[in-house]
Write a structure and sequence with these properties.
Belongs to the short-chain dehydrogenases/reductases (SDR) family. This protein has about 270 residues and is α/β, with parallel strands linked by helices. The chain is built from 9 helices and 7 strands. It has a 7-stranded parallel beta sheet, sandwiched between helices. The longest helix is centred in the middle third of the chain and has 29 residues, at about 105-135.
Length: about 270
């Protein structure tokens, strides 16, 4: 399915993006890898080459997902690599670990710039190329937090809910124009997401929390995502913990879920 397809992955330097890059390499895809740090992307590229992808079929395009001014040129470079972009996997993102009362508005804005506006802006650059091709696949890493609101994630949950809404709506717009849209809703996956998460003041959280350390292996997560892609699933829920049951509870017993999440939340005190 992905052999010789041009797949552009953002957030490809670590976590789910890196793991999916390796699975795409195994599937024979042509890879465009993006993240902020070129040196880390070079390491991922070298690992992809071990799975048989030639150097001529891997392109590194480092950029910051919040630097919208470079998106047009970056997209031109991506499209010029092989003359098409068959898949855009929007995977860049950042999380949060702070109560609302302790969170600066600048931190909320940062979460939305990275998790929402960056994904939308890059998609808008790539979409015209796919429409001209008459085919394409746009995927985005959302989260179970895009379906369920939990304490100390107000900004992250808001951003991921927005991501789900935007890409669900986009799917309805391009459904009859050969463009497939996939939303991915991971639960707790063992990545550095909590270490890189923002505290209320915008500084890094800097440690792995218990839920993440006990989460699903990232390679198994990437394999499940690939299976979902191959099956043409519009939404891919991936995880092994109790948070995945929360998706079902939210749908059928929302008041029960609100009670559970409320009981798990820390007590808010005046600063």
């Amino acid at each position: 399915m992905f052999e010789n397809k041009v797949v552009w992955i953002t957030g490809a330097s670590s976590g789910i993006g890196e793991a999916v890059a390796y699975e795409m390499a195994k599937a024979g895809a042509v890879l465009i890898l993006s993240a902020r740090r070129e040196d880390v992307l070079a390491h991922v590229s070298a690992q992809c080459a071990r799975f048989g992808v030639s150097e001529s079929n891997i392109k590194l395009l480092p950029f910051d997902i919040t630097d919208e001014a470079v998106f047009a040129d970056i997209t031109t470079a991506a499209h010029s690599f092989k003359g098409r972009i068959d898949m855009l996997f929007n995977n860049a993102g950042i999380s949060q670990r702070s109560l609302c009362v302790d969170t600066d508005m600048a931190t909320y804005r940062r979460l939305f710039e990275v998790d929402v506006f960056g994904q939308i802006a890059l998609t808008k650059q790539v979409l015209p190329h796919m429409l001209e091709q008459g085919a394409g696949h746009i995927a985005v890493t959302a989260s179970v937090a895009g379906k369920i609101g939990v304490a100390e994630r107000t900004g992250y949950c808001a951003a991921k809910h927005a991501v789900m809404g935007f890409f669900d709506a986009l799917r309805s717009e391009v459904n009859r124009q050969g463009i497939h849209v996939t939303t991915i809703t991971p639960g707790f996956i063992r990545t550095a997401i909590s270490e890189n998460a923002l505290k209320g003041d915008g500084e890094k959280f800097g440690k792995m929390d218990k839920n993440i350390s006990g989460g699903m292996d990232v390679t198994a997560c990437a394999e499940a995502i690939m299976k979902g892609f191959k099956r043409g699933k519009k939404e891919i829920a991936v995880g092994t913990g109790k948070e995945m049951q929360g998706l079902w509870v939210k749908r059928f017993f929302p008041n029960l879920l609100f009670k559970i999440t409320g009981n798990l939340a820390p007590t808010v005190t005046e600063s």
